[in-house]
Amino acid sequence: MARGRLLRRVTEDEFDALYATAFPRLVGQLTALTGDHGEAQDVVQEAFVRAWCRRASVLADRAPEAWVRTVAVRLAVSRWRRARRWRELVCGHGAAERVLEPGLEHLVIVQALRQLPEAQRRAVVLHHLCDLTVEQVAQETGSPTGTVKARLSRGRAALAKLLTPGGTVSVG
Questions:
Q1: Dihedral angle computed from the Cα positions of residues 35, 39, 40 and 44, in that order, rounded to the nearest 10 degrees
Q2: Nearest to 71, CA basis, from 47, 53, 49
Q3: CA distances from 137 to 27, 125, 141, 147 (A)
Q4: What's this model's pTM, rounded to 2 decimal places?
Q5: What span, in angstroms and rounded, lies between the C-alpha atoms of 106 and 89?
Q6: What integer pLDDT is reported at residue 84 of this predicted model?
């Protein structure tokens, strides 16, 4: 019997009745939760869109308004999390680090990298500074994996010579 209720065709009038009675109440509840009337309207509206897609099962549920409220609350929480994460990315400590002037060590490493052949420099930067795997570097550069490994090996050896005391580039 329950299966038959899930499969029955729900009319637009039945769904409209749920919407008309529940929407204002849910917006009020979500406004209290979010503190923002416009945000509450958005998440409740999105929850009703999702309910429309599942209207037969939602209306067959004993508490369709509770289903819509649960979806709206989850949407609001997801938006909070995204907003908080965005704020952390934009206002977090990472942004301040990017605007600091480079230290002497950074300048020396950049100068040493400039002395490497372009293919070695690119492989070293992609692998060690961008944290790409050898396979990802190969894909990015369009080179075979073995070639990338050789470029990394040669590039590291050249950098070691350049950055050691007596090399062309040194700290100090």
A1: -160
A2: 47
A3: 50, 10, 6, 10
A4: 0.48
A5: 24
A6: 79
